[in-house]
Amino acid sequence: xxxxxxRFQGVDYFNIDDLLTEExxxxxxxxxxxxxxxxxxxxxxxxxxxxxxxxxxxxxxEIGAFGPYIPEQxxxxxxxxxxxxxxxxxxxxxxxxxxxxxxxxSSLVMYPIWQYGSQEQKMKYLPKLGTGEMIGCxxxxxxxxxxxxxxxxxxxxxxxxxxxxxxxxMWISNAPFADIAVVWxxxxxxxxxxxxxxxxxxxFTTPTMHGKWSLRASxxxxxxxxxxxxxxTNILPNKSGLGAPLGCLDSARYGISWGxxxxxxxxxxxxxxxxxxxxxxxxPIGGFQLQQKKLAEMVTEITKAQxxxxxxxxxxxxxxxxxxxxxxxxxxxxxxxxxxSREARQIHGAMGITNEYPIMRxxxxxxxxxxxxxxxxVHLLITGMxxxxxxxxx
Length: 394
Ligand code: TGC
Ligand code: FAD
What we know:
Low-confidence stretches: none
Distance between the termini: 50 Å
Structural class: alpha+beta
Mean pLDDT: 97
Bound molecules: 3-thiaglutaryl-CoA, flavin-adenine dinucleotide
Number of helices: 11
Radius of gyration: 21 Å
Helix content: 40-55%
Strand content: 5-15%
Largest sheet: 4 strands, antiparallel
Number of strands: 9
Oligomer: single chain
């Protein structure tokens, strides 16, 4: 079992660090240090066991990874969007499943409560979600509605002071151990609303999904609602319609656009080091032009993606980032990271398929990341729609 020293050094070919504030660097470096100490020593075992190590939750809260941009009045650190991006980059450098847990908690659970919730809901849930005392999940996808969530069939009926919820969600990150689920379902008129469904509510179960060869260090499950009575005070009052869950996705996709670069950085960092240490034909393999081509193209693509997400972060800080810009960045970063992981795998030769190195794990993880939060195709069609004004979905 791999338990080697984590020698990751970061990748900054265009001196992007010069654009960061002291606070950004401090946040990034603390997260990097935490990942080296707490994640790297056990990630390969967690991956093999297909278990999310729950002992990470407290530390994630302490480094500010749960709702970094949530204001202080709700117990959050009130950081900017570039800080959020840097945190996701460092976590996904450790493992995409780790970043998933932080993405879901921040952008898919805390964000909708903060943006669409009542004052009571914010005060009840946000501080505990921020520390990790409470863990949440986000139920949008259904067995028959993945890319097309607007077709969902989960629904609820009015029953006085509560509603009765029926339906099922699948592929839900953190479902097996979440304390609370933000669930999207239709009312009797067919309008989509967000409901806060708590573990322990009658008729609510969260079976674990097994058999993943990707994102194994993240627990994935179903959400099953069999006549679940949900108090009306648990419905998010301030936004409804498909735009409500899609607004959360904008925030999560933004985080992934940074996160996937972290996975690519780890693959490149490992491949560069390996290319200098591995000797064949009496020379380090890094001296061969074919290996240099791979490495040079990897660092070029990482740098291009870094510049895109940094600018996107500035736009997000100014409240100007569009859904289409976020789609382009999510798609570009994940596609780039997948290609980098495949090239890095080749540079490591046979060792690249083992858990002595992080490459194959990142590569397998990225096969989930390229599908969830909108597939590679869906994001291309969002860009296509934006530039042509023509909707390919309808
Ligand atoms: P469409 O008709 O285009 O839009 C419906 C309404 O929503 C509005 N809207 C948005 N609002 C806010 N933010 C956005 N990003 C928005 N995009 C659209 C839109 O203006 C409209 O509003 P209104 O008032 O006119 O009703 O919707 P559509 O049904 O044609 O679908 C468009 C499409 C395909 C792009 C969308 O459905 C989509 O993005 N599909 C992909 C689904 C997806 O990404 N699912 C992710 C599930 S969560 C997940 O994967 C978590 S993984 C977590 C982890 O582990 O990290
Ligand atoms: P489908 O929508 O069936 O797509 C299948 C293929 O058809 C894809 O290649 C797609 O690009 C293509 N396609 C679909 N429509 C079009 C079109 N109009 N034009 C061209 N091609 C098209 N969901 C949640 O709600 N919460 C979660 O926490 C969550 N976590 C996840 C964790 C993991 C590990 C995974 C793998 C998924 C998770 N998901 C979650 C679900 C994820 O969001 C969906 O898998 C994703 O949206 C795609 O849906 P689908 O798998 O049903 O694919």
